[in-house]
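Troubleshooting entry. Yesterday's outputs looked truncated, so today I'm pasting the complete records for two proteins to confirm everything comes through intact. If either block looks cut off, that's the bug. Protein one:
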Amino acid sequence: MQTNPLSQQREFTKISFRPDLKRFDMDSIDDDLESLLRKRVYDMAGVVPGVKVFYNGERIAIKSFKEYVELFTESRAVPMPVFHQVPYKEQRAIFIYVFHSHRS
């Protein structure tokens, strides 16, 4: 009996992106565009639950929307967000700021 090695592997979908540089009159991807594309990959990793996302062969270490939001809040003086998820729909991070006015 011969087994098919592909049948033993898990199913997945691979999406690759290679821009047609000639079409956009470009010789290469500049730093700004690369930064934008990398940001979009991180966005996808943060908002698509249960999907392993890679950028240039490296897995993005974000596994949840909460981890994604924490990328933007860790090093800043902002309050911890309150997370809200609508069943089977989007997730939200709500930041509550309390401002005190000191008038003399």
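Protein two, checking that the full record survives here as well:
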Amino acid sequence: MTVAPDLLQPLSTLHPLLDTNVSTLKAQCFTKRLTGKEFYLSDHYVNQIPTLPGVVYIEMARAAGTLASPDQKVIALKNIVWAQPIQVKDRPQVVSVNLYLETSGLSF
């Protein structure tokens, strides 16, 4: 997942944790705009900064996999590493979930 500042408001959402599908021929990509007012951010602070809980990362990846391939069920997520926390400080952030097809399934 990558984080980029953004001020655009989505018109509709695909899932409560995914706003838009911005996929290309190279990869499936879904985004979510975080304002800091989401209940899962307003209840989870690290060093007094709203921080995305780990379980939300996992649900975003699961939902992205389901949206990318609706006829196949996501049955497992493996080898999850949090390189850095996603925090919403002074302005909204856009989080991207990128999916890549591999021989053993999808990676994100």
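Both blocks look complete. Sanity check on protein two: Strands lie at 2-5, 20-21, 28-34, 45-46, 49-50, 93-102, 105-107.
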